[in-house]
Amino acid sequence: MSVEKMSVQAIATEKISAEKIGARPIVTRPTIPATMRAAVYRGINDVRVETVPVPVNADGTIDEGEVLVRIDTCGICGTDLKKIHSGSHTAPRIFGHEMAGTIVRVGAGVEHFAIGDRVMAYHHIPCGECYYCRKRTFAQCETYKKVGCTAGFAAAGGGFAEYIRVAEWIVGKPGKTAGLIKIPDDIPFEQASFIEPVNTCFKAVRLLDLKPDETVLVIGQGPIGILIAALARRTGATVLTSDLYAERHAVAAKFGLHYPLDARGDVVAAAKAATEGRGADVALVAVGSDALIRVAMDAVRPGGRVMLFAATQHGEAIFDPAAVCMDEKTLMGSYSASVAINDAVAELVFEGYRDGSFDLTQLVSHRFSLEQAVAAIDLASNPQASSMKILIQPQR
Fold it and tell me: What pTM was estimated for this model as a whole?
């Protein structure tokens, strides 16, 4: 055959896309150990760092629709501490729910998440169909009350461990917001670990429907109090903050909160002095103290609203019922997160870090390794003037 008779064509002159050949990037499957370290709740005031099994099936797999996450950061929440100190939950358990990390296993049927994805996980997600979900009081849904993340034992969040297993109703389906949120590469795990607590605070602020001409008093300037106050300020309202410690007011000032009240003084009088004698339009109680409910009720004007945010233990509180009836003051509460605002909260946390307007890493005062978890819980249980958000970071 002569050369002239051959049809010469360019070979491979254009790139062959992955779509044309159905190729996917090669992802190395991480090696998962059989055991891990975890801070295990063994009874009232009894937490021990132990070696426990990684939360997978006996054959090393996880179930359909689930993911396994290697924890990078988990914040210590006041509700974790109440469970540890009150004995409200049976032992053993592994608490921790303000958590972020990296996916290391995906179960069958999970198509919208992959190994290597950086994520944060909510531990509660509602069914979306029951009476309470239809009324958008998601925290009262029976499915919501189930915990969908575990590090072993009875499900309790599991963030105080190296790995957590995330249930399928938390992972969700493609195109539907559930409880597993992807974290962009430019957002630190520390910032992302605040998404769940920010959601709870944002939910409370939205329920109040604040107006720019209103004055808000936030009682307590721990991490949650500062989050609530900073979110209230973003509505345009004037925000007064009350706390015992000048150090906490200094942190609050980084979030534009410049009207501090000394809680050792007369907060009610100070709130009235700042509002031409009326009292605040709204008071939010971000401290778990029943005695402060009366303070809040006295500090708001006739027709004002008082929001309880930290009253998560049953008890009795004294306040004047005529203040509700004759003075038309409203006493209300807000508890846990709302799935309806998951996307908005994630955007707020991510963009707030990028532009510096809501850099929540400024709230972190202490970082502990998992081996130091008992000391971390002790410090969080006995807060000091200089202690704010305390993190446990298993990879330290």
Answer: 0.92
